């Protein structure tokens, strides 16, 4: 019976061995935390104006996108094959964003395009973080915040 428990313990250790050493753990934690933090920034901006996709949605989209590229890279998938994963993520998030777009009863008035675009961009930010391109992810998120917040203010001023 003691041999069984030993085998079970060894199997459990093998199943959790994808994060082998401290550098692997640090790399994965950093990439995922960057993805979540940047998704939170973008999501907070959308939530602050009452958009349909807010903080949690953007955080989850960014984290999920990071995972979709991080896991194949950890498994040793070549970058050419990761491009197929990217295509799937891009298309899948496009469907998610489509749910945020609503056509009102008024003639030609559509709402939610900016929210859909921000969800799509958040996925790209998560992908960048997941692939180890944290600086690119941060720069992209900062540019998105500028577009979403500063341009919204200038748009309001033009209307008034």
Tell me about the largest β-sheet: 2 strands, antiparallel
Percentage of residues in strands? under 5%
Number of strands: 2
What would you call the structural class? mainly alpha
What's the shape? elongated
One letter per element, helices H and strands E, the order comes to: HHHHEEHH
Question: Percentage of helical residues?
Answer: over 70%
Strand order of the largest sheet: 1-2
* Rg: 20 Å
Number of domains: 1
Give the N-to-C terminal Cα separation: 79 Å
Helix count from the secondary structure assignment: 6
Given as residue ranges, the uncertain stretches (5+ residues, pLDDT < 50) are none
pLDDT averaged over residues = 87
Record the SSE blueprint.
Blueprint: H1 2-15, H2 22-48, H3 55-74, H4 79-98, E1 102-103, E2 110-111, H5 113-130, H6 134-159
Antiparallel strand pairs: 1-2
Helix pairs in contact: 2-3, 2-5, 2-6, 3-4, 3-5, 4-5, 5-6
Q: Which labels suit this protein?
A:
two-stranded antiparallel ribbon; mainly alpha; single chain; 2 strands; elongated; 2% strand; cell membrane; 160 residues; transmembrane helix
């Amino acid at each position: 019976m003691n041999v069984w428990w030993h085998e079970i313990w060894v199997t459990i250790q093998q199943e959790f061995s994808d994060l082998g050493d401290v550098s692997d753990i640090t790399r994965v934690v950093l990439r995922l935390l960057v993805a979540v933090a940047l998704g939170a920034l973008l999501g907070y901006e959308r939530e602050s104006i009452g958009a349909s996709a807010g903080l949690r949605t953007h955080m989850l989209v960014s984290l999920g996108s990071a995972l979709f590229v991080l896991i194949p890279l950890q498994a040793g998938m070549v970058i050419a094959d990761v491009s197929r994963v990217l295509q799937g993520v891009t298309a899948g998030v496009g469907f998610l964003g489509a749910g945020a777009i609503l056509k009102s009863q008024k003639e030609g008035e559509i709402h939610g395009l900016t929210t859909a675009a921000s969800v799509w961009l958040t996925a790209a930010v998560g992908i960048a973080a997941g692939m180890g391109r944290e600086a690119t992810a941060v720069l992209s998120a900062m540019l998105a915040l500028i577009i979403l917040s500063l341009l919204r203010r200038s748009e309001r001023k033009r209307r008034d």
